[in-house]
Amino acid sequence: MSKFTQDKIVNYLKNYGFVFPCSEIYNGLANAWDYGPVGVLLKNNLKALWWSYFVTGQRNMVGLDSSILLNPDVWKASGHLSSFTDPLIDCKACKQRFRVDKLILSLYPDLKINEKTSFNDLLKIIKDKHITCPSCKKFAWTEIRNFNLMFQTYQGVVNDKKSVLYLRPETAQGIFINFVNIQRSLHLKVPFGVGQIGKAFRNEITPGNFIFRTREFEQMEIEFFCYPKDSEKSFEVWLEKIKGFLYKHLMFSKTNIKLHEHAKADLSHYSSRTIDIEYNFPHGWSELWGLANRTDFDLLSHEKYSKKTLAYLDPKTNKRFIPYVIEPSVGVERLLYALICEKYAIEKVGNDEREVLHLPYALCPYKVAVLPLSNKLEKQANKIFEQILKANLSCAFDITGSIGKRYRRQDAIGTMYCLTYDFDSDKDHCVTIRNRDSMKQERIKISEIIAYLNKANK
Ligand code: ATP
């Protein structure tokens, strides 16, 4: 289990301006969260790091920003209209609704059930094990039925069948339907991939576990188009890239990550191989990142429904074929949550304790904080603050409370360095720089601050 409870993490993130409950002054909106001043910096840094590692940092990758609202035929072709469903059961006594498979697995995690388990078999388990309602403890279940997870809305002024649209439940389909545009406009040769970061919406039956499962979230997805014969090798390459990102860039500990290979019988309709990269969250081991070989399912299906050819003309053989697709997909908030669990620590400092977030430099919401030792030194310290902002480094300025308390606050939000401007600084033109992790302090020249920061984090 992870070091801290979910409640501990939620309170910490709220207190320090990372994540607030959504619509709190109106008693909140269940399972919706807002990202505060520190949270938005961290989230943006995480997305930027993902983008630079997986998209601009790879020679055969490009990016895309496709629409959230798509022609509803897209969802027919992708199978979402018919099968993006979860098995739903209602408690007749208290009217609470549950996703049956998750309800059973929360009590019997070792039972072999998955999205292909029939409603009859699920109901039999509920009856045999006499599973009662977690909310009112009664045994008064309805039949199980399918519940489509797509949010429906209407386009234009008339709310009729013809104007129905859906909020996308994944960003992937925007990439598939643009495959030909992307390939032709840049004359790309297979293999190549397309990365996209964007909002997705799922009307989850049982959201929860803080930001782990919400109805509105962001995905960072890649669709990598390759020759069918190379798809298995490509799958392994992407698995290694994900591991590289988690272990080398985010510095995750290997003990908190495990791989869950889906059995052949459990694979989704579009997949020939799937691995879930799981993280040891406070609520237990759960999927963090999905990696799937989607074969040629999506492009073939869009070809069939749109009646447009989506085949790629192989310049070597002059023959057309539909590429296979490898898809690494991760939720921004899920990764952020795992990252916080991984990096948050409470450490002993002498007789005291400090909360600290050991983020890698690239992710720190503030790289550095400027702390004038006294109010009298504010003007001079402000000049340094301006100098750092001009250098395009995210910087905090804190003048409230004792210097010790200010160090603690910056440690808790992951600021890598604190610069203290004291009474000697006027004379020696130096400041004290303190490192978040080692807490070591050294004296450096004000004129060399930017060079120091750049050099230390190469
Ligand atoms: P789960 O089994 O947890 O519902 P999934 O297999 O349906 O996830 P995918 O459709 O593969 O998930 O989505 C890819 C990634 O998007 C997931 O690995 C996860 O990181 C993220 N994700 C999916 N659903 C949610 C959600 N409701 N809230 C937050 N992130 C999500």
What does this structure look like?
The mean pLDDT is 96. Helix content is 31%, strand content 27%. The longest helix has 19 residues, at 231-249. It has 15 helices and 23 strands. It is globular and about 75 Å long. The two termini are 34 Å apart. Strands 3-9-10-16-13-12-11 form a seven-stranded mixed beta sheet. It has 458 residues and is α+β, with helices and mostly antiparallel strands. It has three domains: 6-70 and 158-342, BirA Bifunctional Protein, domain 2, CATH 3.30.930; 85-148, Herpes Virus-1, CATH 3.30.40; 366-456, 3-Layer(aba) Sandwich (Rossmann fold). The protein binds adenosine-5'-triphosphate. Residues 170, 202, 204, 213-214, 217, 219, 287-290, 329-331, 333-334 line the site of adenosine-5'-triphosphate.
Number of domains: 3
Write down the CATH class of the largest domain.
Alpha Beta
Segments where pLDDT lies below 50 for 5+ residues? none
Compute the CA-based radius of gyration: 26 Å
Question: How many individual helices?
Answer: 15
What bound compounds does this protein have? adenosine-5'-triphosphate
What would you say the CATH architecture of the largest domain is? 2-Layer Sandwich
- Largest sheet geometry: 7 strands, mixed
How do the strands line up in the largest sheet? 3-9-10-16-13-12-11
Query: pLDDT average, as an integer?
Result: 96
- How many beta strands in the DSSP annotation? 23
Which percent range describes the beta-strand content?
25-35%
Output the CATH topology of the largest domain.
Answer: BirA Bifunctional Protein, domain 2
Helix/strand structural class: alpha+beta
